Amino acid sequence: MSLTTTLSPQQATFPGTPAPAARAVGVTKQYGAGDATVAALDDVSVDLDRGRFTAIMGPSGSGKSTLLHMLAGLDRPTSGEVYLGDTEITSLRDKRLTMLRRDRIGFIFQSFNLLPTMTAAENIVLPMRIAGRRPDPDWVAAIVQTVGLDGRLGHRPSQLSGGQQQRVAAARALASRPEIVFADEPTGALDSRSGTELLRFLRTAVDELAQTVVMVTHDPTAAAYADRVLFLADGHIVDEMHDPSAEAVLDYMKNLGA
Amino acid sequence: MLTATFRSMVAHKLRLLLTTASIALGVALLAGTLILTNTMGIAFDMLFGKIGSGTDTVVRAEAPFTQTEGVGTNRGPIAASVLDQVKKVDGVRAAEGTVQGYALLTDTHGKAITTNGGAPTNGYSMPSDEELRGDVELLSGHAPTNAHEVAIDATSAEDHDIALGSSIKVLFQGPTQEFTVVGTIGYGDGIKDLGGTTSAYFDPATAQKVLGTPGAFDQINVSAADGVSQAELADRISDVIPAGTEAVTGKAVAEENADATKQNFSIVGILFGIFAGIALFVGSFIIWNTFTMTVTQRSREIALLRAIGARRRQVMSSLLLEALGLGLFASAVGFGLGIGVAKGLKWLMDAVGFALPFTSLQIEASQVWISLAVGVGVTVVAALVPARRATKVLPIEALRESTPGAEKSSKLRAVIGLAVIAAGAGALWASLYADGGMKLFGLGLGAAMVGVIIALPVAVRPLAAAIATPLRLRGLPGELAKQNAARNPRRTSATAAALMIGLTLVVSMGVFASSLKASFGDVLSDRVDADLYVVTSSAQAPGYSPSVLAAVKGVDGVDEVSANGWGQARFDGQDSGFSSIDPGNADEVLALNVEKGSLADLGKDDVMVARSAAKEHGWKVGDTVTAEFAESGKHQLHVAAVYEGKGWISDDFVVSRAAQEALAGPQLVSNAFVTIDAGADRAEVQDAIAAALADHPDAKVLDRAGFEKEASGFIDQLLTFMTVMLALAVMIALLGIVNTLALSVFERTRELGLLRAVGMTRSQVRAMVRWESAVISLIGAVSGAALGIGIGLAMSQILKDEGIKSISIPVLQIAVYVAVAAAAGVLAAVGPARSAAKVDVLKAVVTD
């Protein structure tokens, strides 16, 4: 548990270490025009390490979700660059970007993660089906078992609890072996027990499968499952914390809010 | 609240436009068909009603029976002496004998002036009394006064550049004569023809000679003196006229004509009725969908109004007021468009050669009221349910986004639907064996359709699965398309129903027409052995003058000419059609297969009966059959022969043409078969006959191929008409599909966003929506085609006695129809697919 100052991207990518899973370089996102311009992100640069669990925290309006959307290729910055591995994604056309999301990124949203007409099993392999690829059955079986969805695979989302639905979403996010999983408030709509189960699963994925996970959350307890927490305020990364505890994050957030 | 309603309407211009457009469209189609149907009805009415408008009492021969086909009743002539008796009756201001008959006008080049849609070409006697002329008025020139003068309807004169003073030929059942055109005739209110017919007017003496019988009239028209009522006059006249004649009021005659018109018109009326029904169904469905969408979109606005204290009733009445205003405005716009629709339909039918008797568009207040009432009514009702749903929702719930889940199909629906289908099928089956089966047939048909519509939602899922099997090849978008199409079975089936009804109509008629054509071809090749064929110059004309036959006979190289005619009479107490033939040579060109007796014995008092009729009544050669003719009353005919009753001639009763002339008056010839001398060149003889027919513009000569083509011409017209119907049905259905897809895309915004987020490309999204549309269309097209084939087969079966001997299913044609429907579905999806692909991923997946 250590509190350090913000790292510059130059410091993070020194030679000898593998390239980060994702990288933002001077990303700015503005909404509106003229006098009414509001900057949701202001010149943010950050590296997200491979095989680690990163949480992004900050008060409402700090730009944390916007940053996640930029990194995940769901939105385009006003200026700056975003890299996924070695690929600069802000200049990609829609089709390439869509395929990149499909093949190299996993998503868990706060709610509405699943197609209501498809069973849990079908939802899990959705990105691969979209790509027209055959999923690796052993891998999918392993994921399903880890998530604890045995016996529920034939159910449709309406027949599953909120926690089960989010676990299906998590299984889908991992099933295609993405380079990075982005989770946007994945526990936001869950009770604490279901939330804990989901976070444990994400932690396991990082520890045992060397998966890279980036999660936006406003919950210090959730952030405590991460290896590293980035703190955003007013569109800037103001600080970060490694191996955090819930109490430390909560304290810091109180300071940030004060 | 009124202000809020108005502001809200203006604030959503696009939505306003969409809703207005859908209401206006539904009303436009309704109004268009109403106007067109009414206009054609009036065209028929004019034909039979207008001429009699100045007549208070009609004296005519009593009809022995009412004929079952055609308009009006054939009656015998009335002796001229009766006119003198009538004129003496107290209260008669004026009385004149009238004559009406076949008169084909030619233009100044001798070319026949033919009419569209089988409208008659008539000649009339011109009454000299102004009032007895009714609406008939001279637009130019003067009334005909001698045997060389004629007045013609203004449309014929204008369209064919026939100036006053020019000389034209007029063809009758008797010899053709030449007349000088001395006047043009109109019918009041700027109307220049009687519902698409042509009319020639002669002075009464000439009319008697060329149209009827000298010394006799068809009827006597009487105008009452002031203060004498129609009924009173009719009573007084009844007392003096001889037995076998009757005096009826002008009003009664007008009513008879109106009834006859309605009967004659019923099939066209039914076709257009079905059409307006489809239009209305799709229209109200579109309105329903649109309101569901707009109310959902506005649920927050409504919640806000409720939260700040608006009562449910206030919100509700605000929404209904909006529907009312919108419905009224859009219906008015729709009615305006409807006039254009009527014009367009008329133009379309003319363009494909399926013209109907027609006059200028008749727009009446009742059409306006019906259109407005239906438009407003449907809008308000369609808005009611979504409005109720919106106001029932607690304000806070409106903030929560809900996804439309899959709806369960009910077993009850399946049971009821299948029961109704079974009842309909039972009625259809029974109609094949029952007397007067057509009514039962219609009933069964209606029931089967209703049953299918009820049960269709239950069948949507299996149908979608069956249809989508090939779509699996297209991967996930295809799979999702299938699921989405089956997701809301009631909505899908309602969308597909319009297409289904259209295809049912078109395919059933296609099977029927194809069977008819096949039957005709078979009969011609198996049962007819002629070298050349002399037919009417216009396919729809009732026949040509017998003088043509003499002209053809005189041509070098012609061996035999054998003519056919057709008529109606009552045999042994039952109304029946009969054929007339030339007994001397009919068996040289027709395989009649006489089984007993001999054709040569078929004299003026004889009849040949079909085997089936002979068997049924126990008639043998030498027996007597009572035959009653409208024109001449009862006669005892001897059975001279019994024939097979199948082939070119298939009527139960066949008489000689000489007998028909004697019993039913002068007759037109339907067609004649010509054989040529051994060694003569057929093409040369054909040319020679054609030359001989130069003075007979009502007839023409054809070879076998030409005859086959000509005779199947009406079938081709039927097919063209069907194609137009299909095009229109598909167009209407298209609107429904576009609307349903737009609603679905709107409802599934979040799903689409999710799919895009996890990697579905825009083109895949577009493909998904297109395939969904194709599946919906195919559900309609395939079920419609299946239903249509069944109905077409039943229709062919029931008309077996009317000449349908072979049954043929036009497989390729039906496949094309289905393919067109599917393609239309894909086309309909273009817009919704684009908006689906444009869904903002972030807005869709981010919960705020």
UniProtKB/TrEMBL annotation, chain A:
Keyword presence, Cell division: no
Which keywords, in A-to-Z order, does the entry hold? ATP-binding, Nucleotide-binding, Transport
Checking PROSITE patterns in the record gives:
ABC_TRANSPORTER_2
Q: Where is this region: Disordered?
A: 1-20
Gene3D superfamilies documented for this protein: P-loop containing nucleotide triphosphate hydrolases (3.40.50.300)
GO CC annotation, single: membrane protein complex
Q: Which GO terms describe its molecular function?
A: ATP binding; ATP hydrolysis activity; transmembrane transporter activity
Fetch the InterPro entries from UniProt: AAA+_ATPase, ABC_transporter-like_ATP-bd, ABC_transpr_LolD-like, MacB-like_ATP-bd, P-loop_NTPase
The segment(s) forming the ABC transporter domain are 22-253
**Which segments show compositional bias classed as Polar residues?**
1-14
| Record flagged with keyword Transport | yes
User: PANTHER family, from UniProt?
Assistant: ABC TRANSPORTER RELATED (PTHR24220:SF685), IMPORT ATP-BINDING PROTEIN (PTHR24220)
| Protein name per UniProt | ABC transporter ATP-binding protein
UniProtKB/TrEMBL annotation, chain B:
Q: Which InterPro entries match?
A: ABC3_permease_C, MacB_PCD, Macrolide_Exporter_MacB
Give a GO cellular-component term: plasma membrane
Q: What is this protein called?
A: ABC transporter permease
Principal subcellular localization:
membrane
User: Where would you find the membrane-spanning parts of this chain?
Assistant: 265-291, 319-342, 368-387, 414-434, 440-464, 496-516, 718-746, 774-795, 807-830
User: Locate the ABC3 transporter permease C-terminal domain: which residues?
Assistant: 274-393, 724-839
Q: How does it sit in the membrane?
A: Multi-pass membrane protein
Source lineage: Bacteria, Bacillati, Actinomycetota, Actinomycetes, Propionibacteriales
- Name all MacB-like periplasmic core domain ranges: 17-239, 493-691
Q: Which UniProt keywords apply?
A: Cell membrane, Membrane, Transmembrane, Transmembrane helix
